[in-house]
């Protein structure tokens, strides 16, 4: 059970803590038991389960969109509108020293050993070539009360996104949002295309956070403020 506790502590607690949702899981005993059973089973059956997971995935990624029913993408779109996500601005710098970036919800913590993040960037996004070329980016986790600035940032064209003066750049010139709930600086470790997106794995170099805990959640096409304990 020590191994199970270790996995639980490092995967689950980290995940919830990072996104400020600790208050939502104050009574963790039931979840802990469920996780313990899940991880214990996963360990003993790993060799049986992994091939089952891999083969349908490989088949799915080689299928083109056109052989899926039209209604699936519509249903999928509606399903995702019900999935509330934390909001981030992912930023880097181009060769001329200009900040480049985009608003993103496809951002997740990958693991603690090593500290790492995963982001999925549309291959048509203007910031993608700069991200890949610079090889370093900031993930600025947006805090509560930032919905107006977020709406402006999301509407602005690539050249005017960073016009406000709330951005610092470190010695590496990577933009850091001063009013972010937390900022995580990553170096690109791996980047792989999947469908319309590039899946980028980043190794964490720096990570810092604001005292207050609160965030912005994007749900059903709108921004909602979330305050811990409120
Ligand atoms: C709330 C929100 C979340 C978004 N999440 C992502 C995302 O996770 N990945 C992505 O590639 N684009 C995402 N976008 C779209 C980009 O922010 C951006 O609008 C798009 O890449 C066009 O940028 P460009 O004009 O610089 O090419 C999101 C937009 C909004 C409003």
Automatic annotation (TrEMBL):
Q: Please report the organism this UniProt entry assigns to the protein.
A: Croceibacterium atlanticum
According to the record, the signal peptide region is: none
Q: Please identify the protein, giving its name as recorded.
A: NADH:FAD oxidoreductase
What SMART domains does the record tag this protein with?
A: Flavin_Reduct
Q: Which domain of life is it from?
A: Bacteria
Kindly state which keywords UniProt assigns to this record, in alphabetical order: Oxidoreductase
GO MF, one example: riboflavin reductase (NADPH) activity
| Gene3D superfamilies, A to Z | Electron Transport, Fmn-binding Protein, Chain A (2.30.110.10)
Recorded E.C. number(s)? Answer: 1.5.1.37
What the entry lists under Pfam families is as follows: Flavin_Reduct (PF01613)
Which parts form a coiled-coil structure per UniProt?
none
């Amino acid at each position: 059970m020590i191994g199970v506790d270790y996995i639980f502590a490092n995967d689950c607690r980290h995940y919830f803590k990072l996104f400020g949702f600790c208050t939502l899981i104050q009574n963790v005993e039931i979840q802990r038991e469920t996780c313990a059973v899940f991880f214990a089973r996963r360990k003993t059956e790993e060799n049986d389960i992994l091939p089952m997971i891999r083969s349908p995935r490989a088949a799915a990624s080689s299928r083109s969109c056109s052989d899926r029913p039209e209604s699936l993408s519509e249903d999928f779109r509606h399903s995702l509108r019900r999935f509330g996500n934390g909001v981030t601005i992912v930023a880097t710098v181009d060769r001329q020293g200009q900040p480049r970036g985009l608003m993103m919800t496809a951002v997740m913590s990958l693991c603690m050993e090593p500290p790492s993040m995963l982001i999925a960037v549309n291959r048509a996004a203007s910031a993608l070539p700069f991200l890949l070329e610079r090889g370093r980016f900031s993930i600025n986790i947006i805090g509560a009360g930032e919905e107006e600035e977020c709406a402006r940032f999301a509407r602005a064209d690539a050249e005017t996104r960073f016009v406000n003066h709330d951005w610092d750049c470190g010695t590496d010139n990577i933009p850091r949002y001063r009013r972010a709930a937390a900022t995580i600086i990553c170096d690109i470790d791996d980047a792989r295309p999947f469908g319309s997106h590039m899946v980028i794995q980043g190794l964490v170099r720096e990570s810092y956070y604001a005292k207050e805990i609160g965030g912005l959640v994007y749900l059903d096409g709108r921004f909602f403020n979330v305050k811990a304990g409120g």
